[in-house]
Every structure is written in structure tokens, then in C-alpha cells.
Amino acid sequence: AQSVTQLDSQVPVFEEAPVELRCNYSSSVSVYLFWYVQYPNQGLQLLLKYLSGSTLVKGINGFEAEFNKSQTSFHVRKPSVHISDTAEYFCAVIRINAGNMLTFGGGTRLMVKP
Amino acid sequence: EAGVTQSPTHLIKTRGQQATLRCSPISGHTSVYWYQQALGLGLQFLLWYDEGEERNRGNFPPRFSGRQFPNYSSELNVNALELEDSALYLCASSLAETVYSNQPQHFGDGTRLSIL
Q: What CATH number does residue A92 fall under?
């Protein structure tokens, strides 16, 4: 079995401040890791992904994430947020070669205040 | 490049009725996935179709079913609707499934199904 935990359901932050959204996962097999962003009344947009190689991956809109295998974490960061980053962020994993289903965390609502 | 398109945007039904949701994948994508985003339950995997075949199914009752057509578009059918089926249903598509499942899934904007 696998599970994904997003430790914060809401993260309020002021504009231009840095932010980190946390994600931990558990899996008995190797996984691929993803972050998706959902703006109000829209579907999910791929923010970034980790498949293999360098543990630091860059995504869209200035976000980056670091895969830490020993801590089974995949936290995403942005050095300076904008009002337009206000959205719901979902961490997700796929077990490699096991059915292609994304397992999602519960989501983190990022609220950027002016 | 057109993204994943879903129709209708909103669908209102009553208990016991049947609902049909439609999805057109990104051109060139052969895999289609369905997810349910229900309040309080988060995002849950429903179904995965590839090359017209059902490849994987989530933990949902048999009244949730679907199919994939030769042009790779897909339908999700929900029979005997219950109040708890109210949710946003998201469709995603990806390039052909590889052994290592490394093709990212791209999502549509969803169909909001409301059961009265």
C-alpha cells in the first residue's frame, strides 16, 4: 500500500515571501513523484515531477522541489510568491510499473496575502 | 495544442438516474484516466483505459463504468446515482503507457456532477 501525506492543509503567506509546501509518502516499491496545482474552478496542472536523476527538480512558475529518499519526502518551494500563486497544491505518487494510478495527498491551500 | 476537454461542464441529476460524462484526450495520447474529487474525500482514482481496454480500476462499485472509443475519447457512466456521487470528475490523458509509468498525466477542467 502507499500513502501520501501533505502536512499542512492551509499555508497563509505574504506576497514576496518564501514558501515551502511539505509532502511525505510511504511506499514499499519505487515511485515517481508529482506536484499538481489546481486554480479555482479548474482542473489540475502539472507543476513538476521527479522520475530519476538529480534530486532537485524545477517546475513551472518558479517552483522547485527536492526528492529526499531517506526521508521519503518531496517538498516544493518557491523563493518569492505572488498573489497569482494562490491555489490548491497536490502532491501525488505513482508506483512504478503498477497500474498507472496517481495517489494524491489531501492538498495544501496556499493563500498569498498582499 | 488543445488540452484535455471534458463535457458537460456541469451536470445535475436526481438519485437513481444515470449520468454520462465525456472526455477527449490530448492529440496523440492513448491513455485516459478518470478521477473523482469529492468534498472531504480528496482525489481518488477511478479508471484507466489504454488502447480501448480497461487497464486498472480503483475502489469503486461496479455502477461506475466506462469505455474508450477507437479515437481514444472516453465516457464515464455512473448508474443508480446516489447523493454521495456528487463530485468533480476529472479526466486525464497521457502518452502510451510505458513499462515504467513515467508519462505525466494531463488533466481537463472536470465535470461537476450534482445529485439532488
A: 2.60.40.10
Dihedral sign of CA atoms B89, B91, B110, A2 in order: positive
Task: With residue A59 as reference, give the H or E element that holds it.
Answer: none
pLDDT tens digit sequence for A52-95: 888 999 999 999 999 998 999 999 999 999 999 999 999 999 98
Chain B residue numbers touching A5 (CB-CB < 8 A)? none
**Residue bearing the bigger pLDDT, A27 or A75:** A75
Domains of chain B: 5-115 (2.60.40.10)
The domain containing residue A45 runs over which residues?
3-113
State the smallest CA–CA distance between residue B46 and chain A in angstroms: 9
Chain A contact set for B43 (CB, 8 A): 90, 92, 102, 104, 107
B13: Cβ contacts below 8 Å, ≥ 6 apart:
B19, B81, B113, B114, B115, B116
Q: How many domains does chain A have?
A: 1
Residues of chain B with pLDDT under 70: 1, 97-101
